[in-house]
Amino acid sequence: MSQRFRITRSFQEENPDLAISLEEAKRYFAAKPDFAYAPSYTVKGPASTMTIEGDFFMWSHGEAQIPFRHYMGDLYVAVTNEAVIPKMIEIASELRADLTEG
After folding, report:
1. Which run of H or of E encompasses 90?
2. Which residues are CB-contacts of 90 (< 8 A; sequence separation ≥ 6)?
C-alpha cells in the first residue's frame, strides 16, 4: 500500500495566499516539461477500469505516469515510486508550501 501526501499552505498563518489555486497550479506545471494536465485519471485493474474526474498533473517518469491531483487548494500525490519523494519536495519548495501525510 502506498502513502498519500498533501502539498499545502494551510499551516502558514502569515501567508496571504493559503490556497494553491488551480490557475497557479496550471501555470506552475505548464513550465515543467515532464508534466501534462489531464481532466481525469484512469486506473486499470485486472478485472475493471475506473476513471476519476478532477484536475490532474501527470508526471512522466520513465514508463510511469504519476498523478498529482489538485483538490480544494492543495496537491495530493501517492508515493508509489521512490522517485516521487524528491519530486514532491521540489514542488512543495517551489510553491512555498508544506508537505504532510494524508
Report:
1. helix 84-94
2. none
